[in-house]
ATP-dependent zinc metalloprotease FtsH
Amino acid sequence: MAENSKKDNQNANIIRIKPRKKSLSIVTIISFVAMSFLLTIGFNAILNDSSKGEEISLSQVVSYISEGKYEDVTLRDDMVIISQKGTVEGQEVLVNKFALIPQGTDFYTLLSDSGVDIKTLQNDFYKPRIGITFGDIISFIFLGAGLVLVYILIKNMQQSGGKIMDFGQSKARLLFGKKTGVTFEDVAGIEEVKEELTEIVDFLKNPKKYLNIGARIPKGVLLAGAPGTGKTLLARAVAGEAGVPFFHTSGSEFEEMLVGAGASRVRDLFTKARKASPCIIFIDEIDAVAKKRGTVLHSGAGEQTLNQILVEMDGLEGRENVIVLAATNRPDVLDPAILRPGRFDRMVVVHMPDYQGRREIMKVHAKNKKFEEGVDLDLISKKTIGYSGADLENLLNEAAIMAAKENRKKISQEDLLESYLKVKLGRKKKGQISEEDLKITAYHEAGHAIVAKFTKYATPVEQVSIIPRGMSGGVTVYLPEDDKKHIFKDELIASITSAVGGRAAEELFVGRTSTGASADIEQATSVAREMVTQYGMSEKLGMVKYGDMEETKHLGYTYGGGRDFSEKYAEMIDSEVKDLIAKSLAEAKKTLSENKRYVEKLVEMLLANEVVSKEEFDGIFTE
């Protein structure tokens, strides 16, 4: 019994020792890796040529090589050493200078992007070693041991997150300026914005001109505008024009599950940028990491990242010739600290293009496409009010796809018109539709069109169709006569009246109401609520803003907490919105009752042809 008890105690001891042994091995592995790394660095430091000389920027090295101002160039693992003629105490000697190469950067690609023919220079750069020295053997041994131990370490830590070793490195992509392939010639329709950014380009090319007079070029420029207006394209064009390194990243790439990773990536990005200056850092969708602090919109880890951005942009350390460009669709949610002078000194608003801008944008995107003779791009430019540059590019691309699908080699005017409707309203739906559904749709769309025709300040009708597109069973296309910056109250009321014209026609001519008016009701309610709460167009509620409609629409709640008005005013707002829509519905019914013959005539044309153009629609009222 005593012997069995003794054996049990020994087994228990063995079981307790096992986890200690495992944790000890990890500590040992880390120690060996660190020691191997330090010894390898030490041997390399002894063996490498210590006469590297003065450190300069990578851009200067590229400039010297492109201008032929060098005697010899040596390319090593993370640096390039250039030898130039110099004078010391009256004697001509060779002076060495070196520049560090950011991780992941191909030096030959940088030279090629700057216009250097690397085929004629590659032999000058490649310096093969002859034989293997004793120091090389020792370095290889320690390096091999280190790699084996790192592999064992990573295998032991796989359950903790895979790529844990490089979580703090920036994921920004580095391009040399010319590699972006975009200049200001490729950007059209926003000439005022291009003029502002031309100053940035001039500073990057000729910084002394500004510094000599005491001027300080903006450290940061924020591009704000709706999606698709060309903010990212502008940033690439600035880099292409200036011909400097271009770091491209996005706000979401700073986010990481591990605490502190975002701040570490910010530090790494700005460190690389300083080494490659003059350069541009472009942060797309910066609102992902720069939302207002102390609100429900921002997390604790996100605040760490934002704080690091604030320090890097305007801290104690200078960052000469490093300009930060950023883009956002939501400048209203950005923290005030990042918008102040010294960080983002300028906010450049990129507006939707006007008619002239849309025409220039379409010319740019039409360069690589083939069109039939007589195709009128100006007509499409007039029709596409409210389209962004991305929408216009997509329109031309869809037209090209349509032509290619039918095995045609050129784009026709019909392709452009169909693509215009497809981008605006959606693709045509195919399938059998019952006669009853067609008739209800015809009366519904006729209601919209006739009400718009006889309502003062309503937007003119361009086309009426009972062909299903997207989410709708039929469509009435409106086309404003020109681009407007200001919309008046009577024009908003007219838009509500036109929107409810479909429901009014169903009640008067069909005798039943359908679900087809759901989108119309949503549109009318949205316009009426904005009139009351945002534009101060209510006599009862006065010229006061109630809540933040934009934030409520996008995020589901009012920014900064609950609504900023009492229950009493909430009831008044609801009542006022309801009254506006009710009055518009009554006006629409009155208009349709007085113009029944035009409604019936339009319905007859729709059932016969499915689509009624603007000319055909206007012809109804001249007979």
Remarks:
- The chain is about 50% helix and 10% strand.
